[in-house]
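Hello Y.,

Per our agreement to keep a running log of every chain we model this quarter, I'm adding this entry. I've kept the format consistent with earlier entries: sequence first, then predicted structure.
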Amino acid sequence: MSQIILLKGKEKKIQNFYPNVFKDEVKTIIGEIKTGDIVDVVREDMKFIGRGYVTEGTSALVRVLTTKDEKIDKSFIYNKIKVAYDNRKLLLDETNCMRVFFSEADGFPGLIIDKFDKYISIQFRNSGIEVFKQEIINAVKKYMKPKGIYERSDVENRVHEGVEERTGIIYGEIPEEIIMEDNGLKYIIDIEKGQKTGFFLDQRDSRKFIRPYLNDKTKFLDVFSSSGGFSIAALKEGCEKVVAIDKDSHALELCRKNYELNNFKNSFETLEGDAFMLLKTLIGRGEKYDVITLDPPSLIKRKDQVRRGRDFFFDLCDSSFKLMEKDGILGVVTCAYHMGLQDLIEVTRMAASNNGKRLQVIGINYQPEDHPWILHVPETLYLKALWVKIV
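Predicted structure for the entry above:
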């Protein structure tokens, strides 16, 4: 087995459970390596630090899987998946859909597994994990016993690492639509064509958070609605009017199907197009809303894009405050790791000041427990939701 010798002092973060060894932290390499190879990571004095797999096409040369001297084989992979699933079983009391495996947070960087009722959506996010693909699929089949597994490895960084994006059924069968039941709500899940791996499971806590603030007099605007996570929650609380905005026509079609699935009768409208332009159109009409949610896709992939991200959120918040009633509530959400909570707070405050609005923070949400946040791995905290009320 080849060995990666670290520069002096660079072993500390691996010993403290951080999983990535970057190229500029490596002193030398003993032996030949290629993407997917299992290698040992050692200190300058050759003391064992950890074991992981190689990803040559990225700045992270090694993804550490264990800090123990143990074999990386099918038993290792099976146990990783078993432990991750067992840790989440209590969630099945409130939903039939959840994230079963969350990459670094569950000890196997690059692997995402989502359970949608009796079906699995799986994503292999980097080049190195391809080597373990079949053993991972075998482990999922053996322990979780799904009726079907669908691959959603359609992520941009795969191409950057020299492997093509890939989607399709890899086991069993996948229906066109799956019914998700979540805290008294029903959603249609489209694993094949839906956004991400089929649905934004990570917004569960935010959907729960806002519901007590809603009633039959609430006018609710769901911006970047996707298939209607917030919209359906608002309709469930009997909101007088709910409007969903998204540029994805298929997502809005699912919104309307979810409306029908839940047998709602209250007013519901979908608007297709660019969110910024549609917000300006609503402002021009003189419309007002009691609650607005802003949940845009992650446009900030690197640290040097944060300034652009802040401008993006400022413009969204600025338009939203022009649409809000005097005691309205705004939910501002980012799924970009590099866009921190403090960034959200500052741009929301600046936009409020620009509109003469004084704000009270009523809540802050992060991703739910099936998307674990590991303190030693900062990248595992990516979702931040800031909830403010005009006072």
